[in-house]
Amino acid sequence: MMRPSLTAILLHLTILASHAIYLDIHVPLSYDDDCLMTQTLRANELLRSYSSSQNSDSEQVDLFSKHTPHITLFLADFDLELHGGNYVENDRSLAQLNVTKVNSFLETISTKINLTQVVQGMDCTLSLQSLMEHNDDSNNSKKFYTVNGSFTMLNVKNTPCLKALSNAVVVPLESFVKRPVIVPSWVASLKEPERSAAIYRSRKYGSPNVFEGVTPHLTVG
Q1: What's the whole-model pTM score?
Q2: Does the pLDDT at position 49 exceed 60?
């Protein structure tokens, strides 16, 4: 378990070939928490070892040298790029940032999001949590991990602290989300009324995993 340092909350910027700018606003896992970090790294190591034993390079998540173990607060496609065919050094895979939009975005973060105040007095300890898996054969079981599409995740307890942090980030940044929003394909597999609720959150906030849809996790593969 751990209590994350609020000053360590990061913005992770990735610019994809589609010129979509995705920001992963997250809480990085602290190396001070030997137990949770060890479980996370061990899970990634096992998945990478299995992939290697199958002579496959399909395992792209590398928490040892390429990626940072983290819990996402808000992941969305933001409208921060220039339009009209402006690219960095003629590389069409990298959209050029709109300085005015980026400055406005950063100012909003610095002036409207006070995470220290948001979690004041809260217990922000992080821990893994087992979730009930419902099978068609009625043999329900509890698991500490979830497989969503091609990703494997360790389930993290959804505490009031994590909910408050996510909400505090989503509300002021909603206006920067790129529209129209593309609803993730996995949402179609949800049952009603969860599916309709996820579609609504996607279209309004840019992500289905906000507010009632917050599902804290650590991606390990």
Answers
A1: 0.80
A2: yes
